[in-house]
Structure formats: structure tokens, C-alpha cells
């Protein structure tokens, strides 16, 4: 019975996506996954359970994005500032990421079933050897997939990304540095700039995420905590993007 209901819901979601697809579909959606700890606190759960629920929400969003025809998904999984959290929480997040990256390498994992390629952005040298190895293994295990490109920002901040790109430009001998010199040395060179940036938990800040790349992005803030995000929020964000696109078109005609 549950399986049947699940299939009906998935069918209805796909029908909704078909309706939304009458308008332009964003090529790249970026997520700031905020509110895992508050989600856990509201339910008297451990912080780790909140992050685990956050991971499940990310996987659901990935499937929805893939079915909607989005080509690039980027998620802020761990910022450089997150190293300042309590050591127990940092350890819990590092262990969760290591375990999930390893399990995603399996042939029957969500990323392999949906043909998702995984890429990492950030100063990975700041990570422990085992997490770095798991990230490398996952990149290698999905390199042949041709569906959505999922970029996981780990040990990432935007200002760090910009400083490193400028440093590299100088080291590589550019005396006058142009925009393209910097852009081609950014971690995010792998994807076009995001069309939509979604942040959960009602916050409107960018928190040092894709500052360079989000100059023209449509910003969408949802009030739910990240683990509660659903396809409705995705549809709402895409409708906002479509309205923004049609306003841009009208402006160009004036
Ligand atoms: C394998 C993989 C990609 C795992 C990802 C797990 C995940 C969703 C990580 C996000 C971690 C994080 C710092 C969330 C922000 O919410 P918060 O902790 O700041 O919560 P708060 O805003 O309620 O304090």
C-alpha cells in the first residue's frame, strides 16, 4: 500500500514539474542548507540527527532537480567558518560526510542511479585525510555520469575562493589581472553562475557563499528549516525565477 502511494505521489510531482516546464527551467540552482540544528532542537533530537535529516533533504532535492531538468546543483555543505563550531559537532559533521561520500560511491547509490556527477569546491587540504580521500573516491566513482553536476562546497568560503584565485593569477605571472584571469581560477569554474540561490530557515544572508557567482542570481528565502524543504519550495523558487525572466524580457523590449 505504502509503495503504491509513494508511486502515485511521485507521478503527481512529475506532472507538476511538466506544467512548470512550460516556462524556462533554470540551468543551475544553489542551496544554502540552513536550519539543521534548529530542526533537531525543535524535536528534541541530537544535532547529528538534524544533519542526517539535512542530508536526506539534499538527496530528495537532487532527485527533484534532476527530474525538472536542472543541469547543475551546488550545495553549501561545510564552510571554513564551520571549523569554529564545538569540536564534537565538527567531528560529527566530518564523520557524517565521510560515511555518506563512501556510501555514495556504491553502484546502486542515488547519485549513480540518477547519473549524477559529484564535484567538490573548497580548500580540501584543510580536511582530514579520510574525508579528503572519500571525496576524491566519490569524484572518481561518478566521473562518467552524464546527468546533473552536483558541486558540494566543503571547507569553502567565497572570500577564500576569490583570494586563492587572485593569488594563483599572480603566481602564474599575470601582471595585469583581468576578470577572466580570476574567473578561470575559481573553484566554481566548473559550472555557470547560479540562476537561483535558495536559502532555508528564513535567513536572507549569503554567509560567504558564491558571492562572485551570485551577482545576477534570483535569491529565494524559504522559512522552513532545511530538512523540511520539499518540491513545493523548489517549484515556488522556479516560478519566481520565471517571473524574473519575463520581467527582464519586458525591460529589454522597452
Ligand atoms: C554528505 C553531505 C553533503 C552532508 C551534508 C549534511 C548537511 C546538510 C550539512 C550542512 C551543514 C550545515 C553547517 C548546515 C547549516 O545548518 P546549521 O547547522 O547552521 O543549523 P542552524 O542554522 O539551525 O544552527
Overall geometry comes to globular
End-to-end CA span: 56 Å
Biggest sheet descriptor: 6 strands, parallel
Computed Rg? 19 Å
What are the segments in which pLDDT stays under 50 over at least 5 consecutive residues?
A: none
Q: Which ligands appear in the coordinates?
A: farnesyl diphosphate
**Which structural category do the helix and sheet elements fall into?**
alpha/beta
Helix content: 40-55%
How many distinct helices? 9
Share in β-strands: 5-15%
What are the secondary-structure elements, in order, as H or E?
Answer: HEHHEHHEHEHHEEH
Mean pLDDT: 95
Number of strands: 6
Strand order of the largest sheet: 3-4-2-1-5-6
InterPro entries: UPP_synth-like, UPP_synth-like_CS, UPP_synth-like_sf
Protein name: Alkyl transferase
Family: Belongs to the UPP synthase family.
Keywords: Transferase
